[in-house]
Write a structure and sequence with these properties.
With about 260 residues, the chain is an alpha/beta fold. About 30% of the residues lie in helices and about 25% in strands. α4 crosses α5 and α5 runs parallel beside α6. The structure holds adenosine-5'-diphosphate and magnesium ion.
Length: about 260
């Protein structure tokens, strides 16, 4: 197997006094499509921010290509790791094309303008995400599903090696969820993009991700294939519910319903 692209070694982090990420160790390899699962407040968003260098770990190491994140400049890091937040507060009425072009910022020097190349890359990112027809629209006006695709286009314009997405489908209906997940799947399969997604929907996670990492209270409970991770007893304990779990043995995906 190739060298890991991202490594967490005994990583701990606290916002205040109590750690919310506790001694987490994991390796992500190039080309993996990984889902991070766990109850609300379990530390998914915090973990993604630590991986993207948006938060600095208190203990342990976070390595990108075997070098500590802190060793990279902000700009260099943004050229390699794209972090896509859950919320997209947008106060100014930017047009969609402008938002996508903003993804080129890590490549521009101060006081220089975008070149033909930057426009080409942004254009390609819009094609991949099927947002070209939205170019002239105001970002504030497009639908939730379109917004998410625009934000992914902007992240793609960064030409990152890894994309960290915080619940990219949680606010969307099933049609848009599938649209976004299929775009990500294509990026993974055709461009070899390494993807880490915080997710809530266990069925979709098991359907799209090759590997799942289940966390609870800031610690990894299970890390493996969907079949290994999504087990009735484990989920009942972590989510504190009684469930019925149905497994599709063809693709390993699961369906969950309340036990009643
Ligand atoms: P998840 O994304 O799995 O819902 P989070 O990473 O957002 O979990 O949160 C993990 C824990 O950290 C929770 O207990 C949450 O209340 C706390 N937390 C998150 N963000 C902050 C913050 N900015 N300041 C203080 N505590 C926070
Ligand atoms: Mg979160």
């Amino acid at each position: 197997m190739s060298a890991p692209i991202l490594q967490l070694q005994d990583v701990s982090f606290a916002y205040q006094k109590d750690p919310v990420v506790k001694q987490v160790s994991l390796n992500i390899h190039p080309g993996e499509f990984v889902g991070i699962l766990g109850p609300n407040g379990s530390g998914k968003s915090t973990l993604l921010k630590l991986m993207g260098g948006l938060l600095k770990n208190d203990l342990g190491s976070v390595l990108f290509k075997e070098t500590e994140l802190a060793q990279y400049s902000r700009k260099r890091l943004a050229q390699s790791i794209a972090w896509i937040p859950q919320e997209h507060p947008m106060v100014f009425p930017f047009r969609v094309a402008e938002i996508v072009l903003m993804g080129r910022h890590p490549y521009l020097s101060p006081l220089t303008f975008e070149t033909e190349k930057d426009f080409d890359i942004a254009g390609r990112a819009m094609e991949i995400t099927d947002t070209t027809h939205l170019s002239g629209r105001s970002f504030n006006e497009v639908s939730g599903g379109e917004k998410q695709r625009v934000v992914i286009a902007s992240a793609l314009a960064q030409e990152p090696e890894i994309m960290l997405l915080d619940e990219p489908t949680s606010a969307l209906d099933i049609k848009y969820q599938l649209e976004v997940l299929n775009i990500l799947k294509r990026l993974n399969q055709e461009n070899g993009m390494t993807l880490l997604l915080a997710m809530h929907d266990l069925h979709l996670a098991s359907k799209f991700c090759q590997r799942l990492i289940l966390i609870n209270q800031g610690q990894i409970v299970k890390d493996g294939t969907p079949e290994e991770v999504l087990q009735k007893e484990v989920l009942e304990k972590v989510y504190d519910v009684r469930i019925k779990l149905f497994r599709d043995h063809e693709d390993g995906s699961v369906m969950i319903s309340p036990e009643s």
